[in-house]
Design a protein that fits this description.
It contains 24 helices and 32 strands. The chain has a six-stranded antiparallel sheet with strand order 12-11-10-15-14-13, with helices on both faces. Strands 17, 18, 19, 20, 23 and 24 form a six-stranded mixed sheet that branches. Strands 27, 28, 29, 30, 31 and 32 form a six-stranded antiparallel sheet that branches. Helix 10 runs antiparallel to helix 11 (about 375-385) and helix 17 (about 600-615) runs antiparallel to helix 18 (about 620-645). It is a multi-pass membrane protein.
Length: about 950
């Protein structure tokens, strides 16, 4: 029977075993402990009720038997001693007399029968007349002898039913005491059993009451158990206990639970091992466990303890203690023990692994921050020392430091690239020195065998000592004890070796250290190889670019020039500059910048510089020079794109260029300039004033379809014209206006400086710390040709004026002290003037300029230019220009807005004409003839 509690059930809690708990609709579940106790109580109550009934029946039957014995005896004796019984027994018809009397006595006394019989046991009376005259069933011998017999026996049927249960036989005596007959009276058991039936409801009621009390008690117990077990079933409790017990004894942490009176309630296997406890310690006082005083005080104390370290035997234990009264306990304690001596080794290995991983991470971040070979090698040394080694040296093949492809021929001679660590005072080769290794040295073996070498004890490393006994001895004196040398290899190409040393106060290298060093060297080798390849490509590009830039100042005395070129760190660019002497002692200044970096930009720059030289040779105006450059850049871009498209690549071509082209005339003291997308030049006047001359800005080269505006400015003698590329003033950190202001500040007060000083001052003030773009700077200080060194006059368009030109030329040269050049100069002027008069158009003019060389210029208004040719024997002309070319170092034609100018230059050495190898007179006479246009 199950009885509901009548209270709402609390939310079900899932047991810790992880198995779902079965639903319980009733408290007294037959599968629960309370339900099983209840069934046991029901069985006990039923047994008790049955036992009570049985006892009552037994006791009632027993009492009935005793009562029947008494009543039987009384009834029998009463009838036997009744008057007339003995006489009736001795009469002729005893039955007729005794039968009515016996029935009356039976009914009066309540017995079941009264039988009168003779001494032979023949019945004279019986409740059933048909039984009269039959033999009495029972024992009569004692009664015949005068004694009373009481017994349980069965007989013929009686009115009460069943058989006789209890009967008494008594003798009947006459007056003389002689036994004349027998009387028996009896009561059947069935008749007596009716005496206990009225008591049966009392017993059953008591059993029901007991059953009700058991049900109520079991319900209360079930509720309490349910609260204490948190609704868990017995199998769940058993599983939970098994799991907890397994966990408790398998954890690597000792657990001890003590009671409030200081007794040890529970201890797991780990705690027994850590403090050497015997097996039967549960229930014993803590003071009897023989623990160290510090641990015993912790077990007995009531204070909380967190991570206290105590020495127990040879173990270093970390102890934690918490009271249990806050968790439903009885004021006990929970103490946990952890063996830190065992954890120290594990944590030490974990810490070492963590440090190695951190060191590898720092190596990945810190090695290869630049594309410089030696800097990368030094970064490897700085990362490894002192966290991995006390001293680190990095030796690279000499070809690697130069950016070349390494070869096996240079393995013995390596260059010390970096030294790192606190042991730098140890006598090792400094950076930059060449280190020579023997064939048995660990370093060379590492290169040859392509694997690292470990020398745990250098004192026993004979190969290392043979490498350099004196140096090895000094290293040993400085406590170097262990060495790991690993090859630096990238793309299966040897680059050098890295050597890691440890001193005597550091642990010697082990095989796992060799593996770590190889991993560290592999990462560094990749960075070093990248730097080597960059160095090679950068050196090639710089070499190419420098070969395309001016290497020395050209011979000219019009401008005092100085320049600086700084390539970018990431690679060369397309910046270029040039100083080009022109006819008439003029000088062209060029500053350009090709968009982009690398070999492509450098090659493009070389082509543009060559083009500028060619256009300058034609002595074209500055705007036409830029126009021709613009067309060239467009054609170059189209060619590049077409070539890339043919190769299956997306064509980029030349993306553009900027250029500033200026021509300075020392005679007029003016400079004509035009700029195509280039930064504006800066002029420093002789008094130190800095200003921008205001050259109009035109589109960059490569756009096409735009004219280029020119500007002509006067530059007094001593003025400085500063040309530059945008890498000098344009930085990502600030706007270009800030860079221009810094440039003006650096040039302030430069009026009296030489161009070299001005260049250095500008570079010192504006050089970027990390140049991302090329920087080109050109400073030109102007010189004006004195009027005393200039002679010019107009020539009438008449051949008769030629002798006068010769005479005037002779006088001018005599005044300049150049009389020795008179013959050649007169001949040159005579031929040029005659040609201008005969084939040109007026006005005709002559100008002589004295400087580094003697310049003769003949101008006319014609646009046709003479050409040099070899005249045949029968030709009447064609020999005049040949004579001019023989007596002049250079000659040419330049065009002006009013015609052309034919010019020649004769070199002067120390102010006098240079010696010339004149052709034989006969040869000249054979070639002499009029000039032909």
């Amino acid at each position: 029977m199950e009885v509901s509690s009548g209270r709402p059930r609390s939310p079900e809690r899932h047991p810790l075993t992880g198995h779902p708990r079965r639903r319980r609709g009733f408290l007294l579940n037959v599968h629960s402990a309370a339900g099983q106790v209840f069934l046991l109580q029901v069985a006990i109550v039923v047994v008790l009720v049955l036992a009570a009934v049985a006892a009552m029946v037994f006791q009632t039957a027993r009492d009935a038997v005793q009562r029947g014995r008494r009543e039987s005896v009384v009834a029998a004796q009463s009838f036997a001693s009744a008057p007339g019984t003995a006489a009736a027994l001795q009469s002729r018809h005893p039955t007729a007399v005794l039968q009515p009397r016996a029935e009356e006595a039976r009914k009066r006394t309540g017995v079941d029968f009264i039988v009168a019989m003779n001494t032979q046991g023949i019945r004279y009376t019986y409740p059933y007349p048909q039984e009269i005259g039959k033999k009495f069933v029972g024992t009569i011998a004692p009664a015949v002898n005068g004694r009373t017999v009481i017994e349980q026996a069965g007989g013929p049927p009686l009115p009460a039913g069943g058989g006789t249960d209890v009967q008494a036989v008594v003798p009947v005596t006459d007056s003389r005491g002689k036994v004349v007959g027998l009387v028996s009276a009896g009561i059947t058991v069935r008749n007596v059993s009716a005496l206990w039936l009225p008591q049966l409801p009392i017993i059953l009621g008591s059993g029901a009451a007991a059953l009700g009390m058991a049900t109520a008690g079991t319900t209360l117990v079930a509720r309490r158990l349910r609260r204490q077990t948190r609704g868990l079933a017995p199998e769940e409790l058993a599983s939970l206990y098994e799991h907890h017990d397994a966990v408790l004894h398998s954890v690597r942490e000792g657990v001890l639970i003590t009671s409030a009176d200081g007794r040890l309630l529970l201890v797991n296997d780990e705690a027994r091992r850590l403090v050497d406890l015997p097996a039967d310690v549960e229930g014993r006082p803590v003071r009897e466990l023989g623990l160290p005083e510090s641990v015993m005080c912790l077990l007995s104390s009531s204070e909380e303890v967190t991570d206290e370290v105590h020495l127990v035997g040879d173990r270093l234990l970390t102890v934690n203690r918490r009271p249990t009264h806050g968790h439903g306990g009885l004021g006990g304690n929970v103490v946990t023990l952890r063996d830190t001596t065992e954890l120290a080794a594990v944590s030490g290995r974990a810490e070492a692994a963590r440090e190695r991983l951190m060191l590898l991470y720092e190596a990945g971040v810190g090695i290869g921050t630049t594309l410089d070979v030696e800097r990368t090698a030094q970064e490897l040394a700085d990362v490894a020392a002192p966290r991995f080694a006390d001293l680190v040296t990095v030796d690279l093949l000499d070809a690697v430091t130069r950016g070349w492809e390494p070869t096996a021929e240079g393995w013995r001679n390596l260059r010390r690239a970096a030294v790192g660590g606190e042991q730098r005072s140890i006598p090792v080769c400094p950076p930059g020195e060449v280190v020579t290794f023997s064939s048995r040295a660990p370093q060379l073996r590492a290169l040859q065998e392509r694997r690292g070498m470990l020398e745990t004890d250098l004192r026993q490393a004979h190969d290392w000592w043979e490498q350099g006994p004196e140096r090895a001895r000094k290293a040993a004196e400085h406590s170097l004890r262990s060495l790991v040398t690993v090859p630096l290899r990238a793309r299966d190409v040897p680059l050098g070796v890295a050597n890691f040393y440890r001193a005597a106060d550091s642990p010697a290298f082990q095989p796992d250290d060799l593996s770590f060093a190889e991993e560290l060297a592999a990462r560094a080798a990749t960075a070093i190889d990248n730097a080597r390849r960059f160095t090679r490509e950068h050196a090639m590009a710089v070499t190419l670019q420098r070969s395309l830039l001016p290497r020395a100042q050209p011979d000219q005395d019009t401008l005092q020039v100085a320049w600086r070129y700084l390539p970018a760190e990431a690679g060369v660019g397309g910046d270029w500059f040039d100083v080009i002497p022109l006819a008439g002692m003029r000088v062209a200044l060029v500053m350009g910048d090709v968009v982009g970096h690398g070999l492509q930009a450098a090659a493009t720059m070389g082509r543009l510089r060559t083009a500028v030289h060619n256009f300058s040779t034609l002595d074209l105006p500055v705007d036409e020079v830029l126009g021709n450059l613009d067309d060239l850049v467009i054609r170059m871009g189209e060619e590049e794109r077409a070539g890339d498209a043919a190769d299956g690549h997306e064509g980029m071509g030349v993306t553009g260029a900027t250029c500033l082209y200026a021509v300075y005339d020392p005679v007029a003291g003016t400079c004509t300039m035009a700029r195509a997308g280039h930064p504006e030049p800066v002029a420093v006047w002789p008094d130190g004033t800095v200003a921008c001359p205001g050259v109009p800005a035109s589109p960059p080269l490569g756009l096409g379809g735009h004219p280029f505006e020119t500007a002509e400015i006067a530059l007094p003698e001593g003025s400085q014209l500063v040309l530059y590329t945008d890498g000098l003033v344009d930085e990502r950190a600030h706007d270009i206006d800030v860079g221009m202001e810094r440039l003006r500040n650096a040039l302030a007060g430069s009026g009296g400086r030489a161009p070299e000083e001005t260049c250095q001052a500008v570079i010192d003030a504006l050089k970027p710390s990390h140049a991302s773009d090329d920087v080109a700077l050109l400073v030109a200080c102007t010189r004006v040709l004195p009027s005393s060194h200039v002679a010019q006059w107009a020539v009438p368009p008449d051949p008769a004026a030629v002798p006068e030109v010769r005479e005037r030329c002779r006088r001018t040269l005599r005044e300049w002290g150049l009389g020795e050049a008179g013959f050649a100069t007169e001949l040159i002027l005579s031929e040029l003037v005659t040609n201008a008069i005969r084939y040109g158009s007026p006005p005709v003019g002559v100008r002589l300029l004295r400087g580094r060389c003697l310049v003769c210029e003949v101008s006319d208004g014609s646009g046709t230019s003479p050409r040099l040719r070899r005249a045949a024997t029968t030709d009447e002309g064609g020999r005049g220009l040949f004579l001019v070319a023989q007596f002049a170092q250079r000659w040419g034609t330049r065009y002006t807005t009013h015609g052309k100018v034919i010019w020649t230059e004769q070199l002067l050495v120390d102010g006098t004409p240079a010696a010339t190898s004149h052709a034989p007179v006969d040869f000249l006479l054979d070639q002499f003839d009029d000039l032909e246009t």
